[in-house]
Amino acid sequence: MRTPTALTRPPRRTVTAAAVAVFALLLVGCTAQTPGLLSSSPSPGYLSADETVREIPADQRDDPVTFTGTTGTGVQADSTAWAGSVVVVNFWYAACPPCRAEAPDLEALAQTYQPDGVVFIGVNVRDSADTAAAFENQFGITYPSILDATTGTVQAAFAGKAAPGAVPTTIVLDRTGRMAARIIGQLPTRTTLAALIDTVLAETSP
Asked: Is 18 exposed, middle or buried (0-12, 13-18, 19+ CB in 10 A)?
């Protein structure tokens, strides 16, 4: 069994222009064909200069997002089962270069925040079960992924609230299932997502 790398959660850091340029280039040619899912509504709360990192204050969040789907191992996942937990949702597919680049960071964070009860769930938007499993084995991913290529139900659940049409996209849901933060594209740094998770974990339950 692989021993997870211990992480120290550093303070929030600003995404540099250089980092933005790098992962913006990586996004080229890595957009899933899911038109109509990009939100055109104004973004409340903190928004990075290039609009890739969005953080929403608790009093400005939309209604909870609920979704279900079958994982690559045939298990039925239901977001209502995670009520009371912070949930990190990552949209991905195996041939996407930034998805591959950020996979080790997501797995490390999943291990780090497991004691805090944070749930990590992937949403594969394109692949078969075999292709998804090969990716997960290659990168040592231990958290499950819903296979959403044929149904699109999870992507539809986030329509108008997030941007899963751009892959990868990572979304942090608060304890009531509301979208609290979103990162479009490859994680700028591991600490960027860690800071977003920490903010939501520190919130008092409604």
From this structure: exposed
| Among 67, 77, 102, CA closest to 185 | 102
* 3-state SS class at 47: strand
Query: What is the pTM for the complete model shown?
Result: 0.79
Q: Which residues of 164-191 are buried (b: 16+ CB within 10 A; e: fewer)?
A: bbbbbbbbbbbbbbbbbbbbbbbbbebb
The alpha-carbon radius of gyration of the chain (Å, integer) is 16
Q: In what order do the strands lie in the sheet with 119-124?
A: 46-47, 53-55, 179-184, 169-173, 87-92, 119-124, 145-147
Q: Where are the alpha helices (DSSP H) in 17-96?
A: 17-27
Q: What is each CA distance from 116 to 109, 140, 200, in whole angstroms?
A: 11, 21, 12
Task: List the helix and strand counts (H, then E) for the chain.
Answer: 5, 9
- What Å distances lie between residue 50 and 13, 17, 53, 71, CA to CA? 15, 9, 8, 33
Instruction: Look over the chain and give the mean of its residue pLDDT values, rounded to a whole number.
Output: 81
Q: Tokens at residue 139, please?
A: 């990168």
Q: Output DSSP code: residue 178.
A: -
Q: What is the DSSP letter of 173?
A: E
pLDDT digits (tens, 9 = 90+) for 68-125: 999 999 999 999 999 999 999 999 999 999 999 999 999 999 999 999 999 999 999 9
